[in-house]
Design a protein that fits this description.
alpha+beta; 4-stranded mixed β-sheet; 7 helices; elongated
Length: 175
């Protein structure tokens, strides 16, 4: 769009400065072709546009899971193995554990983060656990004590930054 504005500004300023009528000598086919090409390049290859408000077909996992989470009294949540995906905000929760998300630091350098998250699952410190699993990774999900202490209550597919993910919501079995 800024390119089209610049072209229009250039044409207008050239028209105002000279007696030569630029608008009569412009090849409008070329202008429209450039405008169309700009729109195709801008929106045709933009993966974020598919996730915009114009194309939303169903609510995001954050809202879907928040409805389930908020049906429980005093809910707590762990965003396991990934950066915060907006689940705390959607459910209006404040984390009750220190390592409520995984930082983007290699576990070999900062093992305390994932060790604590695994301990929270083992010790049943939270009522809900959200896990983001890439559909591009065919390996099965292996989280110690997850199946033993929690049950899967909701699953939703969603694109994040153009990549396909399954979001899994687990609930504590004693709840």
């Amino acid at each position: 769009m800024f390119g089209l504005i610049s072209i229009a500004y250039y044409l207008q300023s050239t028209y105002e400065k000279s007696d030569y009528n630029v608008l009569n000598h412009v090849s409008w086919d070329v202008v429209f072709a450039i405008a169309f090409l700009s729109l195709v390049l801008c929106f045709g290859y933009n993966t974020n546009i598919k996730g915009s408000k114009f194309f939303v077909r169903f609510p995001p996992a954050q809202q879907t899971f928040a409805k389930v989470i908020n049906q429980t009294a005093n809910p707590t949540l762990l965003n396991y193995g990934a950066l915060d995906g907006g689940f705390y905000l959607a459910a209006n929760l404040v984390p009750n554990v220190k390592y409520f998300e995984k930082q983007n630091i290699d576990p070999k350098i900062y093992p305390e983060n994932m060790q604590a998250q695994n301990r929270y699952i083992k010790e049943k410190k939270v009522k809900f656990v959200v896990i983001r699993k890439s559909r591009l990774n065919s390996r099965p999900l292996r989280v110690r004590y997850l199946e033993q202490n929690y049950r899967l209550v909701k699953k939703q597919f969603q694109f994040v930054e153009g990549k396909p993910y399954d979001y899994l919501l687990y609930k504590l079995k004693t709840e």
